[in-house]
Amino acid sequence: MSKFYKIVAGPLSMVIIGCGVFAFGGCSGPAARQPEAAQTRLEYPPEVPAGYKGETERRWARIYGNHLYDLIGERPLAWLPVGILEHHGEHLPWSLDGQKAYLVCLRLSEKLNGVVLPVSLLAGVHGDRRPEQSEQEYRDFNKKVGDFMFTEDYFRRFMLETYDGLANIGFKVIVAYTGHYPEIQTQIVRETAEQYSATGRATVIPFWEPLACGAGDHGAKWESSIWEALAPGGVRMKAIVDEETGRSGYYRGQEIRSQISREFGEKALDMVENYLTQKIDEAFAGQETNKH
C-alpha cells in the first residue's frame, strides 16, 4: 500500500491532476476528441419541471405511509405517464417521451391535485411485425433504430392491468398520458381507456399532446419547445443536425433550431393544461351524476 501512495504522489499524479482527463474532459484522451455535443454534461432529464414548488409531495415513489390515502381522499386522481426509450436526434434524450409526460403530469398536479406515478419508460410500441416482413428483417430494423420490440398485446395488457390496479386502490379518474404518440400507440391508449371506463370502476382519460395542441412532431418544434419549457437548457441546440445530410440546425429535413423556444413550449403547455382541466372536471362530474 505504501508503494501505491508513492506512485500516486509521484510525477504521474501531476499528469492526472493537471489533466483531469477522465472526469472533466481536459487535455487529451477520448473526451477531448469528441465533438462539442458529446462533451456536454447536463443534469437532464430533471426530476421536476421548471418552477415546481412541491409544497405537497405527490410523487407516488416518494410518498410515505398513509399520506397516499390522504391524497386519494382529497381527490382520487391518478396521473399515469408512459413512454418509451427512443432516439430523438442528438439534441434530446432517449427518455424524452416518457419524461416529458411525467414532468407535465407533475406540473399539473400542483394545480389539479392527484398522485403522479413514476414514469413507465418501457410502455410504448411502434406496431407488430408486418406479414410481409421476415422475423430477421423486423429484428434488423429495430436494431438499426434502437427500438424495443414490445408487442401490441403486451402494451394493451399493461395499460388495462395498470388501470385496474389503480381503480382497486381507490382512484376514480386516471389520466393515461402517453408522450409517445404514433398511431398504433394512441389507438391502444384510446381503446383501453374506453374499454376500462365502460366497467364503471374508474374513468380513464386518454391523452397525448396533439389532442390539446392540434399538432405535434417527433423531436422537432413542438416536442423540443415543450421540453425546453419543462427543462430549460435541456435541448442541446448546438447539437441539432440532420442525420441524413449532416446539415446543422436541421432535423428530419426541416430547419428547427430557429423554431424552438421556451415561450412556444409554455403556450403548448397552457393548451395541455386547459384541455386536461376540462376533461378531469367532466370525468368527476360524470361520476357524481352516475351516483344519482
UniProtKB/TrEMBL annotation:
Keyword field contains Zinc: yes
GO MF term set: hydrolase activity, acting on carbon-nitrogen (but not peptide) bonds, in linear amides; metal ion binding
Entry cofactors: Zn(2+)
UniProtKB keywords: Hydrolase, Metal-binding, Zinc
Cross-referenced Pfam families: Creatininase
Organism superkingdom: Bacteria
Xref: SUPFAM superfamilies: Creatininase (SSF102215)
GO BP term (any one): riboflavin biosynthetic process
Protein family according to the UniProt entry: Belongs to the creatininase superfamily.
Name under which the protein is recorded: Creatininase
Origin species: Candidatus Glassbacteria bacterium RIFCSPLOWO2_12_FULL_58_11
